[in-house]
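Deliverable D5.2: sample structural annotation.
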Amino acid sequence: MPLPIEDYAMISDCQSAALIGRDGSVDWLCFPRYDSPSMFGALLGDPSHGRWLVAPTDDSAIASRSYVDKTFILVTRWITGTGEVEVTDFMPFGNRRADIVRRVRGVRGAVTMRQDLRIRFGYGTAVPWVRQGVRDGDDRELLAVAGPDAISVHGPRLRARGQSHQSEFEVAAGQTVDISLTWYPSHRDTPPRVDADAALAATTAWWQNWAGSITHDGPYGSVVERSLLVLRALTHEDTGGIVAAATTSLPEQFGGQRNWDYRYVWLRDASLTLSVLLKHGFKSEGSHWREWLLRAIAGDPADVQIMYGLAGERDLPERQLTWLPGYEGSSPVRIGNGAVSQYQADVIGEVIVALHEAREVGLAESKHSWPLTRSLMTFTESNWRRTDSGIWEMRGRERHFTHSRVMVWAAFDRAVKACEQFGQEGPVDRWRRLRDAVRAEIEEHGFNEKRNSYVQSYGSHEVDASLLVLPQVGYLAADDPRMLGTVAALEQDLLVDGLVMRYRTEASSDGLPAGEHPFLACSFWLVEQYANSGRIEQATALMDRLVGLANDVGLLSEEYDVADHRHAGNTPQALSHLALVRAADAIAAHLAR
């Protein structure tokens, strides 16, 4: 059985990511990209689906772990009856390779370590052909090949036991043993062993240099820093694409069907991530993402998708991996995502808002950025009355979701402001009329007078956590009586043990069986709403609780199971971390006032 989701830490080289359990096992790794097929997939099954364990042979060993300051270099300290060791796990940054280094350093006494390597390429379907040898003197090397994939492993000699390779080795105080794994295309020559010392120094310096410019004037500086680092770790170094999470099919409901592949670039999530990074001074990331956007959606605006692959790929068909049992039996395991074909009216609004925020922080227009905006607005003008599937990607009938309608309003609003404030050319009078028409429609059909609340969709009595976004995009003030009424309705209908559900699945036609857990991003949105409407005591109380739900290395998944006190859904989740940063910023701004 895999560990609880909160027992996993992530390491990343901004090309891909690995999840390492508290037990020292790499249970999830996709090389060379975040969305490549897994070679270690025990997270969605068991060790037979691939894993790489490095840990003491003493099963009673006590582990504690942390990241090297301002990095994604993981240090796990093991204390046994015979001594103490540190295992430093990292993925070298910037060497244009796909490596993992696992450095074992003796601290005190002597500790016997074990290694269990089970290589399963292709989401657990391909057991490789393996051979061993010695390279460059006494450097032991294991080579494994299956189809297009190959790896080389350097370190203590591994011996075949069934379909795994294992070793035991002793590490004494002051001794260091380096183990490294390198993925490479099987048709190419085997690359040389990574220089662990140089790679560790360069990777440490890069992460710390990037994080060194983070500033946050408020009481949550350390968690803001870690969250911004998470967002950077989920941003592909070459393409600029920002994945929603590092994993696929970790369940929103344990044992249920709400299992999705989040290793792609949602325009919405990426736009919101961009906004947060820009507000914290990371203009180069903003420029990089904007260029990704221009490439990804180039062509007819009518063909714009809600999500793309890391390099802008459009064909992301959803399929089920029936041979994988799923995390704790939660099936099906899915790769690809069927929501790619949905129309979600809010997405273009989020993109237009992010592009406008780039202007506001001084990011100069590129040759194509305003023509892109004009193109998207032309599409919006032709489609602003359409029903859609909404922010939560409902797999039932399309509707006029109030949040989507507000984001259509926001698209027109930011297009108008681009002309008024930044001198861009466009049909500003027409955009003003359409902006006003959308607002009038929302006020007539999206607000329920009896509940004194905005509602999930036109004609509905249900509320939805996405309504907390309305003041975030300037549709109305956080302390507007209509917004306060909406918050009261949300508190009545959607709070579970003080945390916020997205919506009531039992009252929804989302096309799936009812049941999920509170959504962490929505709970952070409520913190932001509380802070901006003057309820600072409630804001800080909820913020303190949410921050306390992060795991021991500061990571958050998508949801939280309040009954069993555990993380749920894909991890680490970009939307959860960016919402944390926004909430912390809102509290800091209130305290500054």
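Annotation notes: The chain is about 30% helix and 20% strand. The radius of gyration is 25 Å.
The annotation will be released with the project's public dataset once the embargo ends.
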